[in-house]
Please model this.
Amino acid sequence: MRIAIFSLLLVFSTTVPAHADCTKDEVCSLLGKMSHFEILDKCPEAAKFLAECKKIEETGLQLLPEAKFVDNGNGTVSDTENHLMWSKTPVRDKEGNLPKVSLKDARKLAQATTINGTTGWRLPTLAELATLLYPERVENASGKKAWINPLFDDGRGHYYWTSTTCAEVTVIEDRYQKKICQAGEKGAWLVHFNINAVFWHLTDVENYHVWVVKSNK
Model:
């Protein structure tokens, strides 16, 4: 009897897939509602369909001139080339932790930030935040290594929100691969300094952090 039950369980476990198969139409319908990672988790064979889904006009990123950073010695760093002022570190709460927030709350957090008495901060665009990327993984102001200009303190190397949505930029090609976002205003781009990568995610996900910038003209 035990052998029969075991055999039945074995047959059942090998014939029922962990994920349901998805058709091309089903995969394409998920674009704009879920990130590519979530789609692949739901439909492991979706990769072959993603490239065939409805094409969108590819709008790339227009990069800013190479930044010229100067440490102001007061918790801020100036970019004299692009006339910007940055926080030297990402936004932290009273306990010193990096808040995980949605894009909407990231904007609010940026606007409420005060650094050394200075207000008027905002969330950076993707082009702006990309100027902090460094061509090699080096030790930064935190004492740890990341792909960020060494004047900045990014000891944890997390993902950071930008204000650039997928309605503005639909395609990015970083050192890993070409990434296409069809989520429109529901998706936004992020920078990950620990691995020197750019990703997009849905804006209502409360899992990413905040770096702030302001005009310095």
Observations:
- The helical segments are 2-15, 24-30, 36-42, 47-50, 103-111, 126-130.
- Residues 69-215 form one domain.
- The two ends are 81 Å apart (CA to CA).
- The first helix runs from residue 2 to 15.
